[in-house]
Amino acid sequence: MNERKELPVYLFTGFLEAGKTKTLQETLSDPDFNTGEPMLLIVCEEGVEEYDPTAFAHDNIAMEVIEDAEDLTPDLLSALENKYRPDRVLVEYNGVWLIDRLYQSLPENWMVYQEIFVADANTFLAYNKNMRQLVFDKLQSCETVLLNRAPSDVDMEAIHKVIRGANRRCAIGYEYVTGEFAYDEIEDPLPFDINAPIIEIADDDYAFWYRDLTEDPQKYVGKTVRFKGIVARDNQLPPRMFVIGRHIMTCCVDDIGYCGVVCKSMRAKTLNTKDWVILTATVSFEFNKVYGKPGPVLNDMEIEPAEPPKTLVATF
Predict the structure, then answer these.
(1) How far apart are CA 117 and CA 142, in angstroms?
(2) Which phi-psi region, left, alpha or beta, contains residue 205 (left: φ > 0; alpha: ψ -120 to 50)?
(3) For 18-51, b where at least 16 C-beta lie within 10 A, e where not — what string?
């Protein structure tokens, strides 16, 4: 059997009345995007606004509605691909469905090329306050956040802080009620000096440092860091190796997890799991079986016993 060709997927997430339908309508009405190839639009949430196929750039769009999350399966999506043979798929995703449900339902040849989170700038902060887990769920993997209906006095600082707490790399754009569009250009300085002889990581900043280290480890190679963490030992590790880290809560209590980094140390045998220590170490980037791939490795310079921090769980 021949393998199916890769099928690009353009994913639009967000909550009811956020403007997803309008954004998709404009996308499909753009002749630069819609050049006439067969496309499939999958709608998982029908809002107040409806699509106007007569406004599409070409008469080439098939549309299917999936009303129940339980119906979203690889078999259904494969059947839709067989039925319509599209060159592209666009998905208007239901805001109260977790994003993993979609990713786990995509057939192997369906590849998400772009993920856009669409929100109403006037209600974004309220949604985040009342439905934080669902907001975080949509923010963490998107490439772009589009904030519609923005007033001239929109609180960009507050919105920026929420988005960057979940995703440091996505673009943030505002479409104002005047019709103007502007990107968020607020800089995100790290809460520690990465150019210091010893990069001091405060207890409250561990989550930020861990995320920055794992997202861009190369910029730490050869640098020295000092931070407080809890030791994790494992008999399967070499005797001169342990893991040090903190428990981090990215969104809510349910997602607290231990986030650690491999450390090589002659003093590893003197440490026990759950020991709190202050570690000073240099950073390298190399393959380690703990990761199963290349990753950041700490090379011990000094280890001091320490008291637990005031807040045991690190957050953003």
Answers:
(1) 6
(2) alpha
(3) bbbbbbbbebbbeeeebeeeebbbbbbbebeeeb
Domain boundaries along the sequence of the chain: 7-183, 199-315
In DSSP terms, 111 is beta-bridged to 8
**Tokens 């250009």 correspond to what residue?**
185
**Under a CB-based contact definition with an 8 Å cutoff, are residues 175 and 166 in contact?**
no
> Does position 92 have pLDDT exceeding 80, yes or no?
yes
| Residue 8, both tokens | 């690009």
Compute φ and ψ for 98, nearest 5 degrees: -65, 145
CATH architecture for segment(s) 199-315: Beta Barrel (2.40)
Residue pair 181/154 in contact (Cβ under 8 Å)? The answer is no
Residues 230-265: tens digit of each pLDDT: 999 988 889 999 999 999 987 666 678 999 999 999
Has residue 2 got a pLDDT over 60? no
Rounded distance, CA 27 to CA 184, Å? 21
Fold of 7-183: Rossmann fold (3.40.50)
